[in-house]
Amino acid sequence: MTAENIQEYTLSTGIIIAGAYADKIRKTLFAQLRDLTKNNRDMAREAARASAELNRLLYYLIVDELKSDKGDAVRVRIKYKVYPDRNYIEWDYDSLVVEYFKRLSDEEVGKSLRKVLNERLKEVQEAFGKKPPAPEQLQTGEVAGAGPSKGEEVKETPAPPAESAGFTIGGLAEMGETSLGTILLKIEDPKGESLGVVELSEREGKVVGEALVVYGGEGYRALISLEGSVEKALENKDLIIEELRKARFVKISKQDAENFIREKMSMIS
Fold it and tell me: Are residues 73 and 194 in the same domain?
């Protein structure tokens, strides 16, 4: 007896506005099953039926239960099986995952934005090659209290490098290219265990990277910058490792670090 032809897929909407989930699911399903539906009206009708079934269930969740509001966002992931010989699609509802993102008020976002600008703008500008101009030093005889006197150096306390945070970066492993065209690499310790990820991109003739690490119950984030192209950097990963070891890792919450890492990994195409 010939075994039945069964094909398995995973549907993921990516992060979308809550009000657009139904259209996104329908379009994604038809795109994934393009080869099965383009010359088969019965399978096309089944894809329409299956998407309507899932969308009705999600309506009860997103609209009725979660009371979705304008500006809220969702991400839906679910596995399913296709039986081409029977023109049938079966959702695996045990695998259904719905992530819901509630929109914050403009006031809350504005408050956080001002905090980030005050505390992180200089760090980001330096990492990406845009350093603010240094203020002119005060001349002897100028009013005290307006700034440091001539010859006095203002020192910024740096965040600790990787080793000071307790972890050692031993290697890198390529994970793939993201939908944004950036390259994601896994950061490993000397034993090959995963510490986190670093995302590389090119800006103004430089390679810039954002590193995220989870270690010892804490999260860490750092920005790095290298001369040249991403392609050249990947040919000599030791240069990236060296920059990561020297980087100033800022402590963030473990949850934030894990969320950022998951988000970046979900964008690998």
Answer: no
Number of structural domains (the chain) is 2
Rounded Cα gap, residues 220 and 253, in angstroms: 8
Q: Is there a contact between 195 and 181 (Cβ–Cβ < 8 Å)?
A: no
* Longest Cα–Cα distance in the chain: 99
Tokens found for residue 61: 């969740």
Question: Are residue 28 and residue 124 in the same domain, yes or no?
Answer: no
Residue 125 has pLDDT above 80, yes or no: no
Helix (H) or strand (E) holding 83: strand 73-83
The reported pLDDT for the residue numbered 179 is: 72
**Least confidently predicted of 53-57, 68-72, 156-160, 170-174:** 156-160
- What is the reported pLDDT for 141? 40
Residue pair 257/212 in contact (Cβ under 8 Å)? The answer is yes
Asked whether residue 219 falls in the same domain as residue 125, the answer is yes
Q: Which residue, 178, 200, 201, 197, is CA-closest to 187?
A: 197
Q: Return the number of other C-beta atoms located less than 10 Å from residue 70's C-beta.
A: 8
**Which pLDDT belongs to residue 157?**
38
Which CATH number covers residue 83? 3.30.470.50
Does residue 111 belong to any structural domain of this protein? Answer: no
Cβ atoms of 196 and 213 closer than 8 Å: yes
More confident residue, 138 or 209: 209
Question: What residue has token string 């000397």?
Answer: 190
Structure tokens at 215: 């270690």
Q: Are residues 124 and 93 in the same domain?
A: no
Do residue 123 and residue 243 come from a single domain? Answer: yes
What is the Cα–Cα distance from 198 to 223, expressed in whole angstroms? Answer: 9
In a domain, 238, yes or no: yes
Average pLDDT over residues 242-261: 88
Q: Look at residue 269 in the predicted model and tell me its pLDDT.
A: 57
Report which DSSP code applies to 154: P
